[in-house]
């Protein structure tokens, strides 16, 4: 780009071209959706099998898988932060949203440990919905929004069903709100990257 | 009139830098270089001019042992950009 005098039309052209470059780029957050989606899905199905089919009282041990998620998430976030050369307001808002959601997951864990786990999945499904709805709306990515709506509906249904079925509803909620939108998001970001 | 346009912003590269930064929170030097196709030397000179005018906040630190320059638009820079766009709009309207 040359340092020279230029017309107002060219000024507008420069502004428009540069703003276009920063606009509409969907941030690839699919790693987190897929990692947590699959971990929760496997843990839910695992707990259902251990509790309903194997009849072991230690059916909840599968949720220790979440520690694997924490380790991988921390490593991934440190590595991607190093590579990040631009930070948009969208990135920042989503960072704050997910910090709030992670804090709520952890506090739910403490709260349910004290109050009993019988209704825990209803609340976890509500949290899946909040994160996916806001992320979906901010990124203008409708599969996440639809996944969130499905999770809200499943959370409502879970209030009518016993605990064992709620485990399966949780697996279904994570499939439609994290796993499926996660793959679709990853495809869109790859397409976007190949078009640059 | 066109003469009212801010001379700091009325330069192709400086305007490009400000336009890139207006819609993001902050960006690294390399992001600006890639998107403006400017040489590192020229970009550095223009960033310094914008910084001296108070339009940019420039932070220099190290990332993985490499120097890293992060640029961020200041409230003064945002107002100046806004004013520049308004002047452009009124100029273009007056020509219609």
What does this structure look like?
The complex is a heterodimer of chains A (196) and B (96). With 196 residues, chain A is an all-alpha fold. Chain A has one domain (28-185). Chain A is built from 7 helices and 1 strand; from the N terminus they run αααβαααα. By secondary structure, chain B is of the alpha+beta class. Chain B has one domain (2-88): Arc Repressor Mutant, subunit A (Orthogonal Bundle). Chain B has 4 helices and 3 strands. The longest helix of chain B has 21 residues, at 75-95. The mean pLDDT of chain B is 90. Chain A binds chain B through residues 1-6, 8-12, 14-15, 17-19, 21-23, 82, 85-89, 91-92, and chain B through 2, 5, 10-13, 15-16, 19-20, 22-28, 30-31, 35-38, 42, 46, 63-64, 84-85, 88, 91-92.
Element layout with pairings:
The complex is a heterodimer of chains A (196) and B (96).
Chain A: H1 8-22, H2 30-53, H3 65-83, E1 86-88, H4 89-115, H5 120-138, H6 142-158, H7 163-195
Helix pairs in contact in A: 2-3, 2-7, 4-5, 5-6, 5-7, 6-7
Chain B: H1 12-22, E1 24-28, H2 29-36, H3 40-52, E2 56-63, E3 66-73, H4 75-95
Antiparallel strand pairs in B: 1-3, 2-3
């Amino acid at each position: 780009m040359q340092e020279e005098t230029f017309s107002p039309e060219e000024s507008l052209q420069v502004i428009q071209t540069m703003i276009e470059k920063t606009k509409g780029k969907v941030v690839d957050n699919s790693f987190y959706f897929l990692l947590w989606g699959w971990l929760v899905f496997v843990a839910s199905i695992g707990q259902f099998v251990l509790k309903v089919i194997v009849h072991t009282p230690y059916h909840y041990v599968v949720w220790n898988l979440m520690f694997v998620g924490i380790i991988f998430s921390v490593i991934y976030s440190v590595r991607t932060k190093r590579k990040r050369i631009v930070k948009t307001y969208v990135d920042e808002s989503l960072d704050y949203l997910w910090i709030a959601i992670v804090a709520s997951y952890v506090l739910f864990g403490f709260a349910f440990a004290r109050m009993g786990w019988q209704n825990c999945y209803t609340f976890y499904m509500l949290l899946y919905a909040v994160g996916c709805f806001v992320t979906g709306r901010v990124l203008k990515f409708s599969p996440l929004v639809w996944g969130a709506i499905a999770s809200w509906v499943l959370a409502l249904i879970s209030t009518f069903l016993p605990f064992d079925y709620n485990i399966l509803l949780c697996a279904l909620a994570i499939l439609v709100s994290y796993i499926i939108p996660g793959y679709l998001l990853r495809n869109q970001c790859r397409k976007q990257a190949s078009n640059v | 009139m066109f003469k009212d346009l801010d001379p700091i912003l009325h330069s192709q590269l400086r305007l490009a830098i400000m336009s890139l930064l207006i819609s993001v929170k902050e960006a690294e030097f390399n992001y600006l270089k890639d998107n403006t196709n400017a040489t590192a030397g020229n970009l550095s000179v223009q960033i310094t001019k914008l910084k001296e005018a108070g339009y940019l906040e420039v932070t220099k630190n190290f990332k993985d042992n490499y120097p890293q320059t992060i640029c961020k638009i200041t409230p003064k820079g945002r107002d100046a950009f806004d004013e520049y766009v308004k002047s452009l709009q009124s100029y273009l309207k007056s020509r219609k």
